[in-house]
Amino acid sequence: MWRTHNCGELRLDDKGKSVTISGWIQKIRDKGGLIWIDLRDRYGITQIILEEGETDPGLIDLARSLGREFVIQVQGEVVERVSKNPKNPTGDIEIKAESINILNRSKVPPFTIEDETDGGEELRMKYRYLDLRRGTVRKKLELRHKVMQKTREYLSSIEFMEVETPVLIKSTPEGARDFIVPSRMNPGEFYALPQSPQTFKQLLMVSGFDRYFQIVKCFRDEDLRADRQPEFTQIDCEMSFVSRDDVLSTFEGLTKFLFREVNKVDLEDFPVMSYQDVMAKYGTDKPDLRFGMPITDLSGIAKNHDFNVFNSAESILAICVERAADYTRKQIDQLTDWVKRPQVGARGLVYVKYNEDGSLKSSVDKFYDQEDLKKWFAQAEGKPGDLLLILAGDDKSTRFAAGELRLHMGNTLKLMNPDEFKPLWVVDFPLLEWDEETQRYYAMHHPFTSPKEEDLEQIEKNPGNVSANAYDLVINGVEIGGGSIRIHDRSIQEKMFKALGFTEEEAKEQFGFLLNAFEYGAPPHGGIAFGFDRLCSLMGGSTSIRDYIAFPKNNSGRDLMIDTPSEISPEQLEELSIKLISKTKES
Amino acid sequence: MWRTHNCGELRLDDKGKSVTISGWIQKIRDKGGLIWIDLRDRYGITQIILEEGETDPGLIDLARSLGREFVIQVQGEVVERVSKNPKNPTGDIEIKAESINILNRSKVPPFTIEDETDGGEELRMKYRYLDLRRGTVRKKLELRHKVMQKTREYLSSIEFMEVETPVLIKSTPEGARDFIVPSRMNPGEFYALPQSPQTFKQLLMVSGFDRYFQIVKCFRDEDLRADRQPEFTQIDCEMSFVSRDDVLSTFEGLTKFLFREVNKVDLEDFPVMSYQDVMAKYGTDKPDLRFGMPITDLSGIAKNHDFNVFNSAESILAICVERAADYTRKQIDQLTDWVKRPQVGARGLVYVKYNEDGSLKSSVDKFYDQEDLKKWFAQAEGKPGDLLLILAGDDKSTRFAAGELRLHMGNTLKLMNPDEFKPLWVVDFPLLEWDEETQRYYAMHHPFTSPKEEDLEQIEKNPGNVSANAYDLVINGVEIGGGSIRIHDRSIQEKMFKALGFTEEEAKEQFGFLLNAFEYGAPPHGGIAFGFDRLCSLMGGSTSIRDYIAFPKNNSGRDLMIDTPSEISPEQLEELSIKLISKTKES
Lengths: 587, 587
What we know:
2 copies of one chain form a homodimer.
Chain A lengths: L17 E13 L3 E8 L2 E8 L5 H8 L6 E10 L12 E12 L16 H6 L1 H4 L3 H23 L3 E2 L17 E3 L7 E3 L5 H9 L4 E9 L11 E10 L3 H20 L8 E3 H8 L12 E3 L10 H4 L3 E7 L7 H12 L9 E5 L5 E3 L7 H10 L7 E7 L1 H18 L10 E5 L4 E4 L4 E4 L14 H4 L8 E6 L2 E8 L4 H10 L4 H14 L7 E7 H8 L30 H6 L2 E3 L2 H4 L1
Parallel strand pairs in A: 3-5, 6-9, 11-17
Antiparallel strand pairs in A: 1-2, 1-4, 2-3, 4-5, 7-8, 9-10, 10-22, 12-13, 13-16, 14-15, 14-16, 17-20, 18-19, 20-21, 21-22
């Protein structure tokens, strides 16, 4: 028996008991006559005490030989502490050691195992098993565990069935790049790892499973950004005989349940906005609603005043920053530099200050009089004391820049309360996006998304104008999930593939099984997928998903701890009927 | 709104309600004046009625145009049935159709969507989405869903944390063959798919996670047998500060909980037997304990009687078949043929009948008198009316054959009650197995299994004699799970790698991260993994795991529905820096 109790459970009620506990040494304090050891495990920290004169001298010598992160087993009596520690649940007691057994020694860890550590990210990733010992890191994975269990509890309670879909599937060139897996038994052929179980969950609806979910690993071979991982986890769901609002209310229910159970927060009903409206108002399809500062379109009233920048602009967009009329010249210059950064891409910034005395001061006073400027403030619902920041240019990039500027001002002015959660459903996305480079349309969600019924006729003549029956869940500016009502009719699916530039043969070759399935009684259906890593990081109050993954990969897709990807043996390659392309050998 | 109710919930209490239901047409009966439609969904079957004279004639025409597996939406009034069907929960009512909306048509399915279908396996796999519509198949996946949820509920309730370990890991040549994944971003390097999360779960113990679990996909590139799949699911667990009996009692608890919740069966406490004992008694390490018929060793009493077959045999092993003394010559001959099959491999079969009158008759009467034969029966605890079947030869293959013969007799005599569950812990496996072909030892479980403490010293001098602190859970002759107490000491782990023929460099190259981790305070730990597909099939009363997998692959690792593995484009290969080995081009 390695322990009678863990390191987090002993209380004053246990006084006098003879106990055995095991754990890691967090800290040793040696005050000459007294030695204290803080012993740690996942459940807490318990103090051990050894006292010269009382404790066996051999045991005191042993204790002095111990080091940080040694694993020891201690047997002793629970005694009441003289000076209690109210911050620690076990702080009323300590254990008077009677024997200590060293279960394993430890080298000095390469960084401190404390909530605030001195280890850099690369070092912590290499020794991830030590990083995971830190309470802050473990708590993130405990939150993840809880969100997983609560998700399953909720969905199971409303008749969703968890079904595992295959990991070794078929490569399809549409969408992101697949990871592929050579088949030894079928030389020259390959599996692919799923980017999502999309077609399988649709087939489960054709099978009449009615409500499906899965918390599932998905894979994308993309060039990684800070918040992307080659393997990531989704809460993947699909429902039959549902309209958009059925899906929205079901997953609004799930989201509220999770926040209530995990964050102890009651979310209000989620607003619903169209893609067009959020783009107009916030310049992004994932707006952070924890603050206002919407974009105002001044194009209708700010032209024709000899100011060529505005006259030649497709759009003139403003945000009104409350109580910022006292911004200095230097602050305005900094903002101007900020919007000109290539990531934002504006060509300049016009400002108008609405002074407290009612006068207005702008960088375009040459072209506009006080009445003109007042009209702008009226349009933006601004008032004395506010600052109007204006960008102009072509609509798409100006709107993007205005959205970025809004976020920047929200950040600067600390308008985003980290303890507040503001969800939003964004609906009615465009079905297709035109890609200039390849001169073709791409599906904005994926090729299985249903056009809105009223736009169905336009899919052949005017595909760019068709709206999708698609929706995203956005919380605090983070896209948490997305989904759509799907096509369940073979002929519409074929039209969709055609709009995407598939030949009939290509459509059949890649998705023939789905097209066939649609001919055997496919029900109307729709679904959604939540980015699970992102949801956890949002609920945990972090911006990095990597913190919420036990063994993440770095930006080159490398696991620094196990040092992979790595070379494999020539025999393995031979068995798989592949060989490496060596650029030098070929040239 | 596609439906107000599903097809399984309307009752007599709902009489008079106007409802809308949607589903698949299971059956249409047209009796001239009356048409009944059985409408099916996951939740049940509801009867629709249309009556000439009462129902709108257009609607009747429409109903006559419908076919099997069409998806329709029906609006109508719930009425009481004249002739009720007590076998169907909705059998007291039917719906008087007022409108029918065809949601999707269906071609005639390639096989009948009934519990007993006329479709062969290949056809059903190709149209798996239709096969899954059958109630018997869906129920298997419903059972799987329930076992998953209950497993998580139980393990979470006793502080196990579910942690997702990575799928893209490192290839290690030890054990079965890995599936590998070329890395585009690291040309010439590869990931591997995990055969199990073994090293990761051990690292989580080093991290102090204390109790880990995961229901996780694992991958093995093996030549497939009927009950093997290239991807399969495990309940994977690990615990710190535990001895073998802690692990056994924890997972005996889980198993009992699952059988109670899912099968409504209370399992008795699981017996524990050593590997040596089960091999001696049953000739296999996974005995079916639903019946007795143990193997009796007659080697000590049956030699030295001029019968050369026995005299030259290493082992003489018998099973005593109760009430089978009346077996005919023909039946004995059939058994002799059976044991001589190459899969069993015996060279012959000796029988002794203990007649009801107390006389004995055997195939070796020339060499043994009645007293000799009586002694054999005494040894085997047989009695008048029983039949002794005896095999002789070298110990290993004779023991195997006797075990097979025992199972065969159990089957023939229907001694294995399909509703009974007999679990057994098998413990103290050998640590290593000698392989004649490669002239080296292999780990019987895996290289991380701890030797039994008392055998530790022998690992260098006499590795073949070392017992492992390993255990298997066997139920009804099926290996449900296996695990071990792990090595947590770097030097012992290094000795183990050495015994397996690893050089120091190879050990470091492949498992350096684990060896390093052991130097930073690794706790004593152990764990287990249950084969989840097999557990579900056992609980569901089936012998095939394929039935319990939503989208299984066939024996060539092929998914017949989506037709994969398949070729990928030259561009994909190029991006991954690999090319195919084409035998013809090279020769």
